[in-house]
Design brief:
257 residues, alpha+beta, 4-stranded antiparallel β-sheet, 14 strands, disordered C terminus
């Protein structure tokens, strides 16, 4: 029978079950997803979870999966469903013989979930990952110091629109949200800020012309570099703006005065 305090070690991660949280430690090594290596470890409060499941995997494995509540984890809000299954930090692949223990621990966690587990979280309940302070994107170097996001355009990578406009700085007080599009999807990805009031020349749907966006591509803003930054910015925004911003559900910004 699984008990709180037990540890489940699976592929590239180990989960420690405590009375009020699950501590996930990600392994380091060549085969570990780079996002997991960048995350290092994460403590997931049980109040941040809506469900825990155990299902059959491939080649005599079982999959333990925790499901975060909507709005509970800034990393998953910023990812907005774009992570590949193998990179899902809430998914642990275990040898088939560990199924009884995994099932027992899943039952124990379910027994600790509150009556509002299926409801959206009232705010972020999981800490945002600590990102790199500077991100090298395809057309810019993006910086975040905890109070503002800066774009320093690349002379060789940025469009003339961005280069002529000059470097940009966006204090958090001017932002409504963040939009991250994975560089592993079709076409280029991007890290786009959603200003409360778009600047002149800054409201272009093309990321390579938008003064509030940086283009992400292979080798320039990979998932393990750009997603933690997007999540950290999202988590730092005033609470009333941040819960739906990454999923594109914000109302239209007010017209400039």
């Amino acid at each position: 029978m699984g008990r709180m305090g037990d540890v489940l070690a699976g592929n590239h991660a180990a989960w420690e079950f405590n009375s009020d949280s699950v501590l996930i430690r990600f392994a380091r090594g060549m085969r570990t997803p780079r996002l997991w290596q960048a995350l290092g470890s994460r403590r997931i409060p049980l109040e941040a979870l809506s469900e825990v499941t155990v299902t059959a995997g491939k080649r005599d494995t079982v999959i333990l999966r925790a499901v975060p509540r909507s709005g509970a984890d800034p990393l998953m809000e910023a990812a907005a469903g774009q992570l590949r299954e193998v990179c899902d930090p809430y998914r642990l692949v275990l040898p088939g013989e560990r199924k009884p223990l995994a099932s027992a621990l899943a039952d124990a966690v379910r027994g600790q979930l509150g009556p509002d587990a299926a409801e959206p979280a009232p705010g972020f309940l999981v800490d945002a990952p600590e990102p790199q302070r500077n991100l090298k994107a395809s057309d810019a170097r993006v910086g975040f110091d905890g109070s503002a996001v800066t774009f320093h355009w690349s002379r060789t990578g940025a469009t003339s629109t961005k280069w002529k406009a000059g470097d940009q700085r966006y204090p958090l007080s001017e932002l409504a949200g963040v939009e991250w599009r994975s560089p592993e999807g079709p076409g280029d990805g991007h890290l786009r800020l959603l200003p409360l009031v778009p600047r002149d020349g800054g409201h272009d749907t093309r990321a390579d012309h938008d003064l509030a966006a940086a283009v992400l591509g292979i080798g320039h803003g990979a998932v393990h570099e750009s997603l933690p930054l997007a999540a950290a910015v999202l988590a730092a925004l005033p609470r009333g703006r941040r819960l739906t911003s990454a999923r594109g559900l914000l109302p239209a910004p007010p017209p400039p005065h």
